[in-house]
Design brief:
Elements: E1 3-9, E2 26-27, E3 30-31, H1 32-41, E4 47-52, H2 56-66, E5 70-74, H3 81-87, E6 98-103, H4 111-120, E7 126-132, E8 141-145, E9 148-153, H5 160-163, E10 167-176, H6 177-186, H7 201-207, E11 212-216, H8 228-248, E12 252-253, E13 266-267, E14 272-273, E15 278-279, E16 284-285, E17 290-291, E18 296-297, E19 300-302, E20 307-308, E21 312-314, E22 318-320, E23 325-337, E24 342-354, E25 359-360, E26 365-367, E27 377-379, E28 384-385, E29 390-392, E30 395-397, E31 402-403, E32 408-409, E33 418-419, H9 431-449
Parallel strand pairs: 1-4, 1-6, 4-5, 7-11, 12-14, 13-16, 14-17, 15-18, 16-19, 17-20, 18-21, 19-22, 20-23, 21-23, 22-23, 23-24, 24-25, 24-27, 25-28, 26-29, 27-30, 28-31, 29-32, 31-33
Antiparallel strand pairs: 2-3, 6-10, 7-10, 8-9
The chain binds uridine-diphosphate-N-acetylglucosamine and magnesium ion (MG).
Uridine-diphosphate-N-acetylglucosamine binds near residues 139, 198 and 224.
Length: about 450
């Protein structure tokens, strides 16, 4: 079945009280817009069109960053949801099959719900996603007659009896694409808001002798973000879902409520995640690895059998091969650590390649930045980097080489060599006692003078 998804993202979002367009505010480390796009993509649609308006360029750039398969159109001025859908028409003139309309500010709609809507199209020409609202507020009300949906009434236009209805419109609809475009072209703005309401297509379809129906979902799924409080609510709802999904998929979470996932976090079966771990965008963790408490991970890959933390920070481009060990207070950025590498303590590894089974001593720093440019450190296999080595990049350490503790390494070290880059130790017998005696006598002189 061919599906086109239209994502409405033109609204201003005044109540966020923000310079950033509402749909670019983040939940689970990704803009709200990307949540809607991910949901859309789960249906493997032939087309995704995002309708932009307020801050159109920024929203379009974010859509393009998500994927080049997304098209954007601009709605100017923003005269209502039907008017927004109409802007996508030129891109959908020969689209066959179904159209689904999503809102970019509603991040929690599930793929299953959309599939249930596609199934319901066998029974109704227009399918609307509805929910029972605890507090129906200003949502559009669904006026039903048995299984049929007769109309959607916007709050502003509803009679007191209609306002008493608790079955509400989520805004998500599913209609044959060409029928949707035809219905939308008939919508007028003769209503309390003077806007072109997408919700009017229900009555327009019925006038043509077609039927409309409702698919129900949980209210939590339709949570729309209009305020910062709702943004926090959406974050909490996303996280509790993601934690439940991880547990279900065979991931151990010792303290699930303290772990924060990103929209695209991927964790394999039998991985163990300790307390207070935060996943930023783009993290993949293979089966059987362990992330200990208080780690902050972003844009990195952790292979099978690796262990990370506690208190480690993996930044974009950190690639840990199998059985790598990264310990406490270690930061890794844009670096490839081959199988069995150990970086146990208090270390910064940035812009580096480290060969298999190399051991990096405590306090080692890859000095990757000269103040203007970044440079790479290359370390071979089975090397031993002594504690507190400063590796001044660009620099290469050969296989099986060793650097002495406290060395500042500015020149390449060949394979099997030992490099010592530190001042030679000088030891003066008895000097400590003589120094302290002298200092004590100075103190005594000073005390007498007072
Ligand atoms: C809409 C529905 C209402 C439903 C509610 C659910 C209509 C007429 N009403 O009302 O029945 O209960 O959502 O949250 O559809 N947008 C545009 N261009 C516009 C106007 C809106 O792209 O000209 C986008 C917004 O960015 C937003 C979505 O459409 O993503 C919904 O717009 P909003 O103004 O929030 O509609 P509501 O009044 O909440
Ligand atoms: Mg709204």
């Amino acid at each position: 079945m061919q599906v086109s998804v239209i994502v409405l993202a033109a609204g201003q979002g005044t109540r966020m009280n923000s310079d950033l367009p509402k749909v670019l505010h983040k939940v689970a480390a990704s803009p709200l817009l990307h949540h809607a796009l991910a949901t859309a993509q789960s249906l493997e649609p032939s087309r995704i069109v995002v309708v932009t308006g307020h801050e159109a360029a920024a929203v379009a750039a974010s859509a393009a960053a998500w994927s080049e398969v997304v098209d954007t159109v601009v709605q100017d001025p923003q005269s209502g949801t039907a008017h927004a859908v109409a802007q996508a028409a030129p891109l959908l003139t020969d689209a066959e099959g179904e159209a689904i309309v999503l809102y970019a500010d509603t991040p929690l709609i599930s793929e299953e719900t959309l599939r249930a809507m596609l199934d319901a199209r066998a029974r109704h020409a227009v399918v609307v996603l509805g929910f029972r609202a605890r507090d129906p507020g200003r949502y559009g009300r669904l006026i039903t007659d048995g299984n049929d949906l007769r109309a959607i009434r916007e709050f502003k236009d509803a009679t007191p009896e209609e306002q008493a209805i608790t079955l509400c419109n989520s805004g998500v609809i599913c209609v044959n694409t060409q029928l949707l475009l035809s219905l939308v072209s008939e919508v007028t703005n003769h209503n309390a808001a003077g806007e072109y309401y997408l919700t009017d297509i229900v009555e327009l379809a019925r006038k043509r002798g077609l039927t409309a129906g409702v698919v129900l979902c949980d209210e939590a799924e339709t949570l729309g973000v209009n305020t910062r409080a709702q943004l926090a609510e959406a974050e909490a709802a996303f996280q509790s879902r993601a934690r439940a999904a991880a547990l279900e998929n065979g991931v151990t979470l010792t303290a699930p409520e303290t772990v924060f996932f990103a929209l695209d976090t991927w964790i394999g079966r039998d991985a163990i995640i300790g307390p207070n771990v935060l996943f930023g965008q783009g993290v993949t963790v293979e089966s059987g690895s362990e992330i200990k408490g208080f780690c902050h991970l972003e844009g990195c890959h952790i292979s099978r059998g690796a262990s990370v933390g506690p208190f480690a920070r993996l930044r974009p481009g950190a690639e840990l091969a199998e059985d790598v060990h990264v310990g406490n207070f270690v930061e890794i950025k844009n670096a490839i650590l081959d199988e069995g590498v150990k970086v146990g303590h208090l270390t910064y590894i940035g812009d580096a390649d480290i060969g298999e089974h190399t051991n990096i001593g405590a306090g080692t720093v890859t000095c990757n930045y000269d103040g203007v440019m970044k440079h790479r450190t290359r370390i071979g296999k089975r090397a031993f980097i002594g504690s507190s080595t400063m590796l001044v990049a660009p620099v290469t350490i050969g296989d099986d080489a060793l650097t002495a503790s406290g060395s500042v390494i500015t020149e390449d070290v060949p394979a099997n060599a030992v490099a010592i880059g530190r001042a030679r130790q000088v030891t003066k017998p008895g000097l400590a006692t003589r120094m302290f005696d002298k200092l004590k006598s100075i103190r005594a002189e000073k005390a007498k003078g007072q």
